[in-house]
Amino acid sequence: MDEEALLKQFAAQFAHGPDDADDTDAAAAAQGSDSTANQATDDADQSPATFDTQQFLNGLDAIFDRHTAATEAGPYLEQAMVDAENAGDEAGLLTVLNETMGFYRSQGRHKENQWIVQRALELAARMGLTTGTSEAWATTLINCATAMRAAQQYDQAEDLYHQAQSVCRHSLAPTDRRLAALHNNLSMLYSETNRPDKAELELREALRIIEASSVNPDADIDVASSHTNLALTLLPEHKLEGAHWHAAKALEIYRTGHLEHSAHYASALAGFAQVCFAERRYADAVTGYRHALAVIEECYGKDTDYWRITADNLRQAEEAAAQAGVTVDNAGVAGDAGALPQSGSRLSNSPAQDKTGANAASSPSTVSVSTGSAGAAEAVSACPVSGLKLARAFWTQMGKPMIAAKYPQYAGRIAAGLVGHGSECYGFDDAYSQDHDFGPRFCLWLTDEDYAAIGEQLEVDYEALPRKFSVDAQGRVTFEAHARSDASGAFPSAGAGSPVTPRAQGANRRDGVFRIGDFFESITGYRTAPAQTAPHEWLMLQESTLAAATNGEVFADPTGLFSKTRQGFKNMPDDVRLALISKRLGMIAQAGQYNLPRSLKRGDGAAAWLSIHEFVQATASLVFLVNVPMVVGYMPYYKWQFAALRKLSGSMFALLPNVGEQLETVMRLSSAACYGGAGFGEGGKGAAPAIEKINDIVEQIAVDIVKELKREHLTTSGETFLEWQRPYVEDHIASDDPVLKSL
Question: How many other β-carbons are positioned within 10 Å of the β-carbon of residue 353?
Fold first, then answer.
């Protein structure tokens, strides 16, 4: 089973467990009876005037207790959403949405979860939670991030997890299990994005928190799940002995607590089977997977990704056992105590541990990359990794050790990452981007006080970091050893990266040491985001400006101050977002639905071409605004506008996912439509077919936009001339500030 399969299995293990804040919350609720759940179901159609959150949780627990979630949980949750909304209970609705996210994720219903994540974030914003540090907001962020991670939307998931970390620092006690949930989920994200060292650290911290908060760690499901998680994280690092111990310990906890009938037990069984497979103990792997499938089928049914991935792993284990000549008892399903391992059992010296024999893998080839002087003609031209990956490696291998050695008292106060202008900050850089302003680099962000104390010297030390590196066949980046040149602890100097353009020098430099406020002011003109009550200031900020201030990645932020400032710029007031949506509707109507066809009829190709430009710009912006910038980010400047739109449209959570492709079709046809003439000769069609196609696409986009506005309850009108939709949208703007309303 290759590493990709290991990661697939890893992802499959955690449909429930301490990694899920929503599951933890449900478990903490009072246990419901069958009659409670049945009564809730019987009364479902009566649209109650009030919504009883505790009764809802009790009923949901009862469904899981009797193992009927596969057929009953979905309808129950959907009805609860209706009941909470009809009762006007926003807090109750948020609870239902959080529970639904966890259930849909366990069922692999990622596309449907799109609406749930979106609704939860929008509801939290409407409730005023996003500017605070409440437990409800922390829990919602964790659950939304976990849903995004399960759907492999890793950038959005990591951003939401980091937001959750910032909130949790202020809202949760050090032993709160939701902190363990956050660490567990971050570990999964790091594992799935090939950062096993960070994954292991996060899991060990999660295990510490859970054990510290547990009344009896030897019979605690959450402790057991953390051991399973840690075992699976150690596997890709080939730490088989540690993986075996933790996997076996998890099963021991289930036995001690007599918890074998819990749905979580499947995770522990499949996790141990995974370890056995890596050890080439194929019979034990088959037995573990078979038992895990039986538990999964009982608790969740067969029509889930969880069941399918585990079944696929069982098939691979059975094939491996057959090839090895190992006989597996088909009757055994690892049900008896004798079939389960003891946590103290030792690993055999399996062939999988032998890395020096005839079957050892050959050493991977490497690509050496030496960054030349600032004006060198042979600048970096074929670096095989992205600028963000290079930046993270440069920080981890060179920057972080330098700070630990030379500024230990400040190591817990310096934020690091790569944000701002530059293709790599958007993740869209390629070989063509490397002829200027490219190379190993990152930003260090300090408070004003810390900058006054160490800023200038830290900049000198940053510039002196060695920048020679190599990239192996697996894409791993390795910088040269930072051997010290003298007793002072200085690092050897190295040249800069590819040629630096004037726009990336001086006050406009894109890397190095910054005051936090100076950094954001250089991009936006503001040291911190405008106040939520200052819509006129928000409206003066271009979306591309906000994109540059909120893109990239933050590698470290011990105090959380940089992330908090950055998050302020992501948190566009909803009134402003709605006002911008209204403006975009107006431009789509004016340029695309009105002026474009009129310009084409009168034969003014130049006016038609410019109308198409305005229509495309407004429509692309609308897509980002509808998808909510806090969730998907802002539309970047023109060069990367469609790269970002394609990325957004490819997400299974995207709203208006077909619009980007439709806009590209309009642009492809624009030349023929604007300058194709009337046509001549036999079969000459001229501009007519292109004009007809463009007009059809414009109207189809308008229809799709109206459907989305209706889904979001922003309109009750079916009018597809979008100018007439503006009053309906603006009715939802709470502020009376005239700057937010159209004339």
Answer: 14
Phi-psi region of 88 (alpha: psi -120 to 50; beta: other; left: phi over 0): left
448-453's contacts with Cβ under 8 Å and 24+ in sequence apart are 448/515, 448/516, 448/517, 450/410, 450/413, 450/414, 451/513, 451/514, 451/515, 453/410
**pLDDT (tens digit, 9 = 90+) per residue, 72-90?**
888 999 999 999 988 889 8
- Residue 30 is predicted with a pLDDT of 28
How far are the Cα atoms of 27, 66, 306, 337, 382 from residue 106, in angstroms, in the given order?
16, 17, 7, 28, 42
In single-letter form, the type of residue at position 248 comes to A
The whole-angstrom distance between residue 514's C-alpha and the CA centroid of its chain comes to 27
Per-residue pLDDT at 449: 97
CB atoms within 10 A of CB 205: 17
Residue 509's closest CA among 416, 564, 442, 451? 442
Instruction: Report the residue count for the chain.
Output: 743
Return the residue matching tokens 């996210």.
101
Residues of the chain with pLDDT under 50: 1-47, 331-381, 482-496, 681
Rounded CA gap, 302 and 564, in Å?
A: 43
Q: What single-letter DSSP state applies at residue 733?
A: -
**DSSP reduced 3-state for 674:** helix
At 666 the pLDDT is 94
Query: How many degrees, rounded to 5, is the angle at CA 505 between CA 499 and CA 508?
Result: 135
- The residues with which 515 forms a beta bridge, in sequence order, are 446
Query: How far apart are the C-alpha atoms of 159 and 208, rounded to whole Å?
Result: 24
- What pLDDT was estimated at residue 330? 59
- Locate tokens 């890793």: which residue? 154
Task: Give 279's contacts (C-beta < 8 A, 6+ positions apart).
Answer: 240, 244, 347, 348, 350, 352
Burial (CB count within 10 angstroms: exposed 0-12, middle 13-18, buried 19+), residue 723: middle
247 contacts: CB under 8 Å, gap ≥ 6: 227, 228, 231, 232, 268, 271, 272, 274, 275, 341
pLDDT exceeding 70 applies to what percent of the chain?
Answer: 80
Q: At 240, which amino acid appears? A: L
pLDDT at 504: 61
Predicted local confidence at residue 344, as pLDDT: 34
pLDDT at 41: 40
> For residues 595 and 589, what is the distance between their CA atoms, to the nearest angstrom?
8
The whole-angstrom separation of Cα 189 and Cα 223 is 20
Instruction: Write the DSSP assignment of 364-423 as a string of letters.
Output: PPEEEE----TT-SS-----SS-HHHHHHHHIIIIIHHHHHHH-GGGTTT-EEEE-SSSH
What is the DSSP secondary structure assignment for residue 485, as one 8-state letter? Answer: S
> Beta strands of 473-515 (E only): which ranges?
477-479, 512-515
**pLDDT for res 357:** 29
pTM: 0.61
Q: What pLDDT is attached to residue 685? A: 64
Specify burial of residue 5 (Cβ count, 10 A radius: 0-12, 13-18, 19+): middle
